[in-house]
Amino acid sequence: MTPSITQAQRDFLISIDTPTVCNLIEIVAPERRGFGYTVRHLHCPFPDLPPMVGFAKTVTMRAQDRVPLGEAGYMAKRLDYLDYVAAEPQPGIAVIQDLDDIVGYGAFWGEVQSNVHKALGCLGTITNGSVRDIPMIPEGFQMLAGSIAPSHAFVHVVDYGVPVNIHGMAVRSGDLIHADQHGAVVVPLEIIDAMKSALPGLNAKEAKIIEAAKAGAGLAAIKAAMKG
């Protein structure tokens, strides 16, 4: 069964940042508190873009060594990979794990790949590898990357539709991802409505604590606000 979300669920997720998504997951699915999100810094060249909410198109890649297949064989693989990216569920987020010993040795992402993937329904990419061509990336295409580098070296797709891990975030093909300048998190589809219901309470609790801190009412007032 192809995973999907309603427009209302998508609008809700886009309206909040990734730290808030993590907070809400902790509330409604406390067993998820310690995993399912990136745990190391990712460069975000476009921090002012809204959050990405899309389904993972998982890929592994290498760039240090030449393509092991002949050029004709590899072209067939690349064309099949594009079929995978363009297929449902949509919109997609290309989640690419760099397998090289020197991660980021060659950039999969640049002007060409970002335009191609955007045309096939991708909102952006999340990769532990490198990106380049920052000024030429198409408008609205988000990138979260382990590094920024100048060359694509011998970059090639190793496999796709396979489990990947990006800075501690384990991702399967078709997982729903929420990502912004802070990082990314896998969102279980079955808890989205519960997350939405929990948001007003979370906002009220945080606002009460912040108000007490800003009001200068002192330690006792802050403690009282934190107790609820």
From TrEMBL:
Transmembrane segments: none annotated. The keyword Cell cycle does not apply. Pfam families: RraA-like. Substrate binds at residue 132. It comes from the Bacteria. Its cofactor is Mg(2+); a divalent metal cation. Mg(2+) binds at residue 133. InterPro entries: RraA/RraA-like, RraA/RraA-like_sf. GO terms for molecular function: metal ion binding. Keywords: Magnesium, Metal-binding. PANTHER family: 4-HYDROXY-4-METHYL-2-OXOGLUTARATE ALDOLASE 3-RELATED. This is Putative 4-hydroxy-4-methyl-2-oxoglutarate aldolase.
